[in-house]
Amino acid sequence: MKNEPVKIKIIEHNTHDVLRIVTHKPKGLDFTPGQATEIFIDKEGWQNEGRPFTFTCLPNEDHLEFMIKTYPSHEGVTNELLKLKEGDTLIVNDIFGAIAYKGEGTFIAGGAGITPFISIFRNLKAHNKLGNNRLIFANKRKKDIILEEEFKEMLGNNFINILSDEKTENYDYGRISESFIQENANVLKLFYVCGPPPMMDAVKKQLEQLKVDKDKIVTEEF
Q1: pLDDT for 170
Q2: How many separate domains does the chain show?
């Protein structure tokens, strides 16, 4: 499915720095919830600048959806995405990704690291299998939380937020720690972890301290 052009149907902000992009779906494209593709902007000078972005839609839907954190100051691909409009074209490439649902557990996400979990949770909901899965979501401020209302509605008390740069009444403050994981994980069995590399390293160390087997930790560098 290399170099398949897809037309943008919707492009809008989901949060102040996250774009929601919905495109047409190429025939025969299939993926597992949690997987990603490499996206190129179909524009002079950008066709070789591929970046990995995760599908946030479900495999059986008739469109593709991506939630993409933008970094205007980097003057790179995500800044260029901010200039696009409906009708513009993106190019999707091969599909890949190590995160897939392996059973009930605790999902730990940092910032845009939530994206592989969006499709996984939406898929579980569609099949009435949310069970006691839990989501711990770390962000800097409340305004950074991607799909806050949808996760609240889906998970209720199993949606746990922690903010590092802002104190608010309803959310925990600080960074994820060993004791925070112990208090908020459903049980110390299966963990899914995705976020920026420093956060991933810290969480993996904490899980090690909590004697969680390495084969019970599903991760994706983000």
Answers
A1: 86
A2: 2
Based on the fold, state whether residues 112 and 211 are members of the same structural domain.
Answer: yes
Query: Residue 174 belongs to what domain range?
Result: 106-221
Coil, strand or helix: which one is 205? helix
Q: What pTM was estimated for this model as a whole? A: 0.94
Beta-strand pair 106-110/134-139: parallel
What pLDDT score was predicted for residue 97? 85
d(CA 50, CA 95): 13
Number of residues that this document lists for the chain: 222
Closest to 165 in 3D by CA, of 201, 196, 138: 138
The span from the first CA to the last CA of the chain, in angstroms, equals 23
> Nearest 5°: phi and psi at 21?
-120, 125
Which H or E run contains 24? strand 18-24
Least Cα distance to 135 among 202, 89, 181, 92 occurs for 181
